Amino acid sequence: MKKFEYEITRHPAEYFREFVYFCSQDGACGLEEVPSAQTEKMQTILNEQGRKGWELVQVAFGKEGIMAFWKRMLIDNE
């Protein structure tokens, strides 16, 4: 049976100053013209965690920043 471990990381809003995710009153959600420097910061986080074997499961956006939920498979001897 496969076994997994999970990690939650927090990334402050200052790091993503212009990374704006919003939802309208009718429930439509989207990104508003995000500068490439901001998406590159997110890509850096994804690649750093990916090199460690972590797979992104979910991202939660809030006024204080971003919370990312990761999972990776445990090797039998762990």
From TrEMBL:
InterPro entries noted in UniProt: YjzH-like (IPR025234)
Pfam family, one: DUF4177
Protein name (Swiss-Prot/TrEMBL): DUF4177 domain-containing protein
Taxonomic superkingdom: Bacteria
